[in-house]
Automatic annotation (TrEMBL):
SUPFAM superfamilies: C-terminal effector domain of the bipartite response regulators (SSF46894), CheY-like (SSF52172). It comes from the Bacteria. PANTHER family: TWO-COMPONENT RESPONSE REGULATOR. This is Two component transcriptional regulator, LuxR family. Residues 141-206 form the HTH luxR-type domain. Keywords: DNA-binding, Phosphoprotein. Residues 3-119 form the Response regulatory domain. It comes from Methylorubrum populi (strain ATCC BAA-705 / NCIMB 13946 / BJ001). GO terms for molecular function: DNA binding. InterPro entries: CheY-like_superfamily, NreC/VraR/RcsB-like_REC, Sig_transdc_resp-reg_C-effctor, Sig_transdc_resp-reg_receiver, Tscrpt_reg_LuxR_C, WalR-like, WH-like_DNA-bd_sf.
Length: 219
């Protein structure tokens, strides 16, 4: 009987897909987590057959959770279930060790199909994610984020989501100076003129959702 770990910081969302999954014969949700750190601890404690996780978590993102879990268990099966649909983000998730990626805009059957596929050892994607990656490859397969390291992408994502450098340092267990140095390198690599420009580069690459309304000073 396959066992599942759900990772999402919204209890109502977790409850919804817990009910969907447990209506399927044989699926059992053995644990739920709200943060990357909780996901890592619960994976080690429960050893589930499959982790289903969102990328947008308080503190370190789901990418960090994927990376840590796969460092602990190279055979871990992890399915991303996220609002983020950008090809660059999906590629980062797969590079970190994800086995599948489904957008939350997908119908429930796509999630169930992906769960079954990942449990069989396959790589699974919802149609919109597969299309985004295919279009990205046809256009050359490079985005603004391709020159960033996984750590720099983690810092960029948290910063673009509104975290201060101090908050990023605390969440990632880094010194403030290290985070500030990384932000300087990120700005240089991306050619970001302002912090607002940095945010919109991250939005354009699908790393974070667009903020409500135009940023000050940008048209």
């Amino acid at each position: 009987m396959p066992t599942l770990l759900l990772v999402d910081d919204h209890p109502v969302v977790r409850e919804g897909y817990r009910r969907l999954l447990e209506r399927q014969p044989g699926f059992t949700v053995v644990a739920e987590a709200e943060t990357a750190a909780q996901a890592y601890r619960l994976y080690k404690a429960q050893a589930p057959d499959l982790v289903i996780l969102d990328l947008s978590l308080p503190g370190p993102s789901g990418i960090e959770a994927i990376r840590h879990i796969r460092q602990w268990d190279a055979a871990a099966r992890i399915l991303v279930f996220s609002m983020r649909t950008g090809a660059a983000v999906a590629r980062q998730a797969f590079a970190a060790g994800a086995s599948g990626y489904v957008s939350k805009a997908s119908p429930p059957r796509d999630l169930l199909t992906a769960v079954a596929g990942v449990l069989r050892g396959e790589r699974a994607m919802s149609p919109d994610i597969a299309l985004a990656i295919a279009q990205d490859e046809v256009s050359g397969g490079r985005t603004a984020l391709d020159d960033l390291s996984p750590r720099e992408i983690e810092i960029l994502g948290m910063t673009a989501a509104g975290a201060t450098a101090s908050a990023v340092a605390e969440a990632l267990c880094l010194s403030l100076k290290t985070v500030q140095n990384n932000l300087s390198l990120i700005r240089a690599k991306l050619g970001a003129r302002t912090d607002a420009h940095l945010v919109w580069i991250a939005v354009g690459a699908g790393l974070v959702a667009a903020p409500p309304g135009p940023p000050s000073g940008e048209s």
